[in-house]
Amino acid sequence: MSRRVKEYVDVEDHVSIDDLILKLSEIRDSLPEDANPEMRLRGDEVFGRRITIAYFRAQTEEEAELEKRYADAAREAKELELQRLQAELGLVCYAAPGKRGKLKIVA
Questions:
Q1: What is the pTM of this model?
Q2: For the chain, N or C: smaller number of CB within 10 Å?
Q3: How far is it, in rounded angstroms, from Cα 3 to Cα 58?
Q4: What residue segments make up the domains of the chain, in order of their start?
C-alpha cells in the first residue's frame, strides 16, 4: 500500500441546511487522519449542482494488485509494439549511456 488514492464523495444539492451540516459532519468524522480533504461546488444549471468532497486514502492491497497487473500488461504491450516497429523500420534501440536510461534509436 505505497500509494494514496483520491476518493470523492458527492452531496446532493437539494437538501436542507441541517441535513447538509449533518452529512458534512459525518463525512469529516469518517475521514482518515491525513486525508487532506477539499470541498468544491460542481455542476451547472442544466445537470444540477453538487458539493464534492475529495480526499486521499491509502490504497488497498486489492487495488495495488490490480494496478500492478495492468501496469505489467501495459509495459508488455509497449515492448511488443516497440519490437514490431523496430522490425518494420529495421532500427535497433539500445540504452543510451548516462543515468537517465533513455532509449537511443540507431539506424
A1: 0.53
A2: C
A3: 6
A4: 4-58, 62-106
d(CA 84, CA 77): 11
Q: Which pLDDT score is estimated for 92?
A: 62
Q: How far apart are CA 14 and CA 57, in angstroms?
A: 28
Q: 35 phi and psi, to 5 degrees? A: -75, -25
Residue that is written with C-alpha cell 535497433 in the block: 92
Q: What is the DSSP letter of 54?
A: E
Decide which of 90 and 64 is more confident.
64
**Could you tell me where the beta strands, DSSP code E, fall in the chain?**
4-11, 38-44, 48-58, 92-95, 103-106
Closest to 41 in 3D by CA, of 57, 28, 29, 24 = 24
